[in-house]
Design goal:
Helix content is 50%, strand content 21%. By secondary structure, it is of the alpha+beta class.
């Protein structure tokens, strides 16, 4: 049976995604194993021309801050390291919320192009507004700990890339199997089952990672008048669970189709 254009497009699309996942996997594994930090080159370059350095980078929901300030008395740079877990957000009540200075955009005085791009922005004078949500930054002891947490983020990318590569490997095999003259085969059914099992395991792996590894407790703080929120990182992905179950149900239908096809061939 000649494969359709849709099947060819799906196979090539799977090939492209699989190639990207493998490239990310090897690149992230290299960075996590050899401890190369995104701060190394930038810091050395910036410190040559400035006595005050701030470097920020984000990875998988965590933001890392490196700060270097030149101290005239000691004639040396003092370094500080921070991590901001974006999943740890605190909510203040209106009465207890700290006040911050802010300027509000005045849309009536600002102008936009026909496509919606702003060409002129006019702001009102500064005023105090309540800070309803806040994400604290925790100071890290030394540079080695900063690099360790940063490598842990790249290890997360490695795990995600491996998972997606494994998923699209079976997806690609299933699409390739659609090119054969026999649609209902044990191989196609197996590839579909493997895809369903991988998708079915995604919400459990996601929950375990964010609950016990990625959001490992660094320190515990209590903010007066604020309560800690639990964001998506801790949520169980029921939509992935349902998608995995649907794929497994379809694979069972494939099994039934294989049996019917075998019985038909025996009858003929």
């Amino acid at each position: 049976m000649k494969s359709t254009l849709t099947t060819k497009v799906l196979i090539w699309l799977s090939n492209g995604i699989l190639a990207v996942c493998l490239a990310v996997f090897f690149y992230s594994a290299y960075l996590s194993l050899f401890g190369i930090s995104a701060f190394d080159k930038k810091i050395s370059e910036v410190q040559e021309i400035s006595r005050f350095t701030n470097v920020t980078t984000s990875i998988l929901g965590n933001t890392f801050f490196y700060q270097s300030i030149y101290d005239n008395e000691s004639d040396s740079f003092k370094e500080h390291y921070y991590i901001v877990p974006n999943s740890r957000v605190y909510r203040f009540s209106i009465n207890e919320a700290p006040k911050v200075r802010a300027r509000k955009l005045q849309e009536d005085l600002s102008s936009r192009t026909w496509f919606g791009f702003r060409t002129r922005s006019v702001y009102a004078d500064e005023s105090e507004v309540p800070l309803i949500l806040a994400t604290p930054g925790f100071e890290i002891e030394d540079r080695s700990e900063l690099d360790r947490l940063f490598r842990l983020g790249y290890l997360s990318y490695t795990a995600y890339a491996f998972y997606l590569a494994l998923l699209f490997l079976f997806v690609r095999k299933f699409f390739v199997g659609l090119k054969t003259s026999t649609f209902f085969t044990l191989e196609n059914s197996f590839n579909l089952k493997a895809t369903g099992c991988i998708v079915l395991g995604a919400p459990f792996l996601h929950y375990i990672w964010y609950k016990f590894i990625e959001t490992a407790q660094i320190t515990e703080i209590a903010i007066e008048g604020a309560t800690q929120l639990r964001f998506f990182g801790f949520a169980f992905k029921f939509e992935l669970l349902i998608a995995g179950l649907v794929i497994l149900v379809i694979s069972k239908a494939f099994d039934h189709g294989v049996k019917l096809q075998n019985e038909q061939e025996l009858t003929i």
